[in-house]
Amino acid sequence: MQEVSEARDIARERISGIVEKLIEGNSLYHVKLDREEMLKLLVSLFGKFSPEEFNAISDNHLIERIDSILILEAVSGTLNDLTPEQIEIFDAAVEGRERG
pTM of the entire structure? Predict the structure, then answer.
């Protein structure tokens, strides 16, 4: 249990600065995401690694992974915000891409 707590503390320390920079640098993230909620999610995900495994992830790779997760979280609810007409336009665009 001690190792899990230690892994989460290490993850939180390293991830928090990355999350802060990514959210501040992206207006979509700034509007759609809650910093603390995202930090909790990411710490939970990356806290499953051992401290050694987590520390072996390069900064650039960690930033890429976190950015991918933030993108997914930011756009996952976007379709819920669309009007029925906008959903039709979206569906038509997706169908057009699949045929092309």
Answer: 0.74
